[in-house]
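Deliverable D5.2: sample structural annotation.
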Amino acid sequence: MMQKESQSNSVWSQVEPYCVLQRIWKNLWMVLMSAALFAMLAYIATSLFYRPSYSCSATFVVTPRNSNSSLSSTVTSSTTDQFAKLLEGQTLINRVQRLQGAEVAGATASASAVPNSNLIELRTTGPSPRSAYYLCTGILDHYEDYSQYVFDSVMLDTVSAPVVPNKNSFLITQRRIVLIAAPLGALFMAAVLALLCITSGTIQTVHGARSQLDGSLLVTLNHQRKRRTLKRLLKRRKSALLISNPTTSFLYVETIHQLRARVDHANQKYGCKTFLITSVTENEGKSTVAANLALSLARRHKKVLLVDCDLRKSAQHLIFEVSEKTVSLNSLLKGSLEPEKLVKALHYRKAENLFFLFAENVHRHSAELLGSDQMGKLLEILRENFDFVILDSSPMGFFTDSEVLSDAADASILVLRQDMLTDRTINDAIDSLSRCKSRFLGYVFNDVHTLNMAARIVGGRRYGYGYGYGHGYGYGYGYSKSRGYGYSSEYGPSGDKQVYDSEERGEDVSLNTAERKGEKHGTE
């Protein structure tokens, strides 16, 4: 019994209610179509089988025909019962139907004596108000044709005359049935979608990721809503989610720093310098994670290079809004690796203290380019001249580019998005990365939504919370008058001054030991 309860709890701990609601919302059209279908079927069924019913009633009292005669209560009660049987008898009803014709078609009658009294209640039911009313009045007009031979000493006096009914006797009308069927159809489809989400096998919670996936969980990045400035809103321009943006939440920034700590550990323990960031499919956030990891590393280390190795759908130049043309990675792999050409291909941004090597979209032969000897030589040169090299590659599920790069890189990280892929698909990708020459560090659980209010409140705290930490850590998140947003105080925890500009550190930003002069690619 305890084992069954633990298994049930384990299953439900792998289901995120937000994902269920999101699945229903994304397929809202199916819910509406199901509601319309149920309403239409209910209308057709009621049109074929539903028959409205209208009732008409009249009340009579059994009295002596002659005012001088008297009847005992016993005889009156017995006579009342017999009179009731006469009124509902088929003989009288058939006579009325012959005389009235189609006016009373389908109508029926029933009569009952009120207990301990000489009252009779006559009730007629028909498919229309006219049929019920005409049958009731017809019985009243012709009952004496039979009663005079049986009850010569009594007669009926009307207490309440029949009236034409104006309401259906059934409480549930056709319109009400249709109105009930529509929400039932919507609930049915919502339940089906919820069941499909629960049994889909996708990774929805942190517990599910740890229990269903083979690799180790590096960090969990909660969903971060992109906040745009008024200028961007007016221009309708989209903004990337970067830790250098002051509107990015403190929780998101610190989680990226945790990922940087994992990368630092791999560098110190295993000597890894080149890190491959990939995903199984597109729209999982790998490019954003790679960009933020590079930004976080650049705040602490001297030289960090972000290489856009996605030759099919490059994104880093869009994330950092770089429009100027430089020598691309494609050109380096197709030509010679001369130092002058390689220096010209690098793009340096002083604000982020980060080097970039962008790419152009090449749909053909990209795997051959990335797996060539030229790429291997390029990575060797980059290892010698940079502290960290972050490689942003194309998704594994579509192309072999990531597997080719994984053999050339030192370590790999897989980015997976909540409720995107099944555990089997992700484990296959993890197995592929584990079989490559590089060391598979683990996976990043990205864009995690939750209905946990505590997590939502913590995640909603903004940069105002970052001031206190920004002055405590050299890599903190806050505001500096000299550096602007994205940098902390100039002093680290030890009181030593933190220097970010290459000129102030006396750092050489070129690929050789000689100082670069006259270059205009952001390294001056």
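Annotation notes: The first strand starts at residue 54 and ends at 64. Residues 174-198 form the longest helix (25 residues).
The annotation will be released with the project's public dataset once the embargo ends.
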